[in-house]
Amino acid sequence: MSKFIFVTGGVVSSLGKGITAASVGRLLKSHGLSVTIVKCDPYINVDAGTMAPLQHGEVFVTDDGAETDLDLGYYERFLDITVGRDNIITAGKVYQSVISKEREGKYLGQTVQVIPHITNEIKERFFKASKGYDITIIEIGGTVGDIESLPFLEAARQMRPDRNHNDTIYIHVTLIPYLSSSDELKTKPTQHSVNKLREIGIDPDIIVCRTEKSLSREIKNKIALFCSVPQEAVIEAPNAPSIYHVPDILKKQGINEQIMMLLRLRSKKWDYEEWSSYVSKLTESANRPSVKIAIAGKYTQLKDSYKSLVEALEQAGIANEINIDFSFLDVQHKNFQTDIKKVDGIVVPGGFGDRGIEGKIDTVKFARENNIPFLGICLGMQCAVIEFARNVLNLKKAHSTEFNKKTPHKVVDIMEAQKTVKEKGGTMRLGAYSCALKPSSLAKKIYGKSAIKERHRHRYEFNPKYMTACAKKGLITSGIHKKMNLPEMVELKNHPWFLAVQFHPEFKSRPLSSHPLFDSFIRASIKQSKTSGKRKEFKI
Q: Domain with 395 in it: what CATH number?
């Protein structure tokens, strides 16, 4: 049976529980153990699909079509694993399942309560996700003391008495605030947070302290004394140069060895060299030349809205030994057109709703006319098709029916399978689908194979009726989902690098294996950067 590690958080939210959980997973995987991670989100939403990016960050999509919290992206990237719908547990899912069972009469007339029915449902999901793994790490979202997370914490508490004592441990991530006026680090919030956890019945085994300043031995001893943990179990987690340095920081303090001891596990091997090598390259990249990449979107106020995209570009930068200088351009504001003149490559990412659409279309036009390397993703591909239809095919009123149902030229239209869909949650074209690549295309050259699988999240597609007209003028469909005859990739002839995709390649990029699309795009942007001093004045 799998061993369980629960990661909780206290004092404030957004402390980095996901990064801590993923880093611990990376270290334990280096011991030769099989590791999986589960995220418990206490919100009542069934999934993250209907949540606004500016409130919640990006929606990460799995191969099996789950719309999840962005932490699952960290899990995949750190552990180099593929997660699925069993790796995300929301309060909405749990209550929906329990109520459904009650309506079916499966509780035999019992009064349905949080304990045991809700907590049993949660624990069943813990065990389901853990099958086949040596270790299951479970991150419980929110902060200790939040009313929403109490059922998950209670389920976590029950896991220790339900099993052998050495099968379950608890890691608590907390904040040590620094008061600049008195030049002091304060441990009291951590003490209160641990006391709150104890009231629930959980005694943490390890405390990970987020801090701006290094913790002295005296402070560590104080935390250990008041929180009843050994001094070595107080782990310092300062601000790191990059999230990928966190496993190193934790390893140097022996967190993996403590966990192995607490869970009575033996190392099968020790293989950390590949990760260590990546971190070294990451450190070196800061001193390398830069290439300026624009992300032209409408959620740029919150960078987490494009988390996987940024990570994928940075990973491609490291693979190509170049530093990425990001320019986040809000396409809703006209001044972005001035800023876009200074970049070496342009990405137009996905999104929903008509806000900022004309700005995205103008961005595509700029990239096409000025021979700037361009990568369109999801809505970015749809904008590329609309721009081409308007300005090359001369279909001036061409649009997507998502934004103008009465357009005479439906170059982007709702998919046939989506026309009867009434509910918004979990009903898009989601997850991994196959795509056949056209011989002799840029897409085929980049991937090096004839068929690929990539993850999707959309309702609207490039209308196949316009494929031939676009191809005659130079915008060819280089990737297609044959079963449904859906265009998946388009590319422009006679352009240094112009490619747009209906899927989300950023979800499959990893630190140790960057995605070929981003690799190729960055190489083209580097080439553009080298010739930037010779190029003509850009057209807007």
A: 3.40.50.880
255 with 308, same domain: the answer is: no
In order, the DSSP letters of 232-297 are GGEEEEE--SSGGGHHHHHHHTTHHHHHHHHTT---S----HHHHHHHHHHHHHTTS-EEEEEEEE
- Location of structure tokens 């008041």: 226
The whole-angstrom separation of Cα 433 and Cα 453 is 5
pTM of the model: 0.93
Amino acid type, 157: R
Task: Tell me which of 277, 307, 326 is where a domain ends.
Answer: 277
Is the domain of 260 the same as that of 329?
Answer: no
- Tell me, yes or no, whether 379 and 352 share the same domain: yes
Instruction: Find the mean pLDDT for residues 290-304.
Output: 87
Confidence of residue 330 (pLDDT cuts 50, 70, 90): confident
In the annotation, is 504 catalytic? yes
**Which residue from 89, 240, 94, 230 is spatially nearest to 169, judged by alpha carbons?**
230
What angle (nearest 5°) sits at the alpha carbon of residue 325, between those of residues 324 and 330?
A: 120
pLDDT in tens, 111-134: 999 999 999 999 999 999 999 999
CB neighbours of residue 269 within 10 Å: 8
- Maximum CA extent, the chain: 79
Q: Based on the domain organization, do 379 and 237 belong to the same domain? A: no
Is 399 known to be catalytic?
no
Sheet holding 460-462, edge to edge: 399-400, 410-414, 460-462
Residues 16-25 have pLDDT tens digits of 999 999 999 9
488 contacts 502 by C-beta, under 8 angstroms:
yes
Q: Which residue has the tokens 């070294």?
A: 280
What's the CA gap between 121 and 116, in Å, rounded? 8
Asked about 470 being catalytic, the answer comes back as: no
Q: How far is CA 388 from the centre of its chain?
A: 31
What HEC string does 448-489 produce? CCCEEEEEEEECEEECHHHHHHHHHCCEEEEEEECCCCEEEE
Tell me which of 40, 378, 435, 470 is the catalytic residue.
378
**Final residue of a domain: which of 225, 252, 277?**
277
Selected catalytic residue, list 409, 456, 495, 504: 504
Residue among 139, 488, 506, 515 flagged as catalytic: 506
Please count the other Cβ atoms lying within 10 Å of the Cβ belonging to residue 286: 10
- Residue 334: domain span: 289-530
Q: Look at residues 427, 424, 425, 452 and name the one whose alpha carbon lies nearest to residue 437.
A: 452
